Recover the amino acids of this structure.
């Protein structure tokens, strides 16, 4: 490996940092600045808050969201495997079988604990 191979990576990282920074910087420099109490007020869904804003949410909602993310990521792993299924060897098949088995066990445990109940 010589330095020329890494120059492409360095250029790519520089562009990856510059591309999002330029519009943000331009918006900050060229954007209008007219603050008033309505603009600086807390906004949530167009409805003004009534009463105490510190409300406790059930932990179950977070668990439900995490379960969704886990199985969503599973689909990201399964799709490329399914597309290349004909070209894979036995090791890839066994690895994905173990992966699916572990997630099935996880789903069964979550179901038994009642984490999938939306109440």
């Amino acid at each position: 490996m010589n330095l020329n191979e890494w120059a492409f990576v360095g250029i790519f990282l520089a562009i990856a940092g510059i591309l999002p920074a330029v519009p943000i910087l331009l918006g900050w420099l060229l954007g209008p600045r007219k603050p008033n109490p309505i603009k600086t007020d807390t906004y949530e869904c167009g409805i003004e808050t009534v009463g105490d804003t510190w409300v406790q949410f059930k932990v179950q909602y977070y668990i439900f969201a995490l379960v969704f993310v886990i199985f969503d990521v599973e689909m990201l792993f399964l799709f490329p495997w399914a597309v290349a299924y004909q070209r894979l060897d036995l090791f890839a098949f066994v690895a994905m079988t173990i992966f699916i088995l572990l997630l099935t066990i996880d789903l069964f445990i979550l179901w038994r604990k009642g984490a999938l109940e939306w109440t």
Notes: The chain has a mean pLDDT of 83.
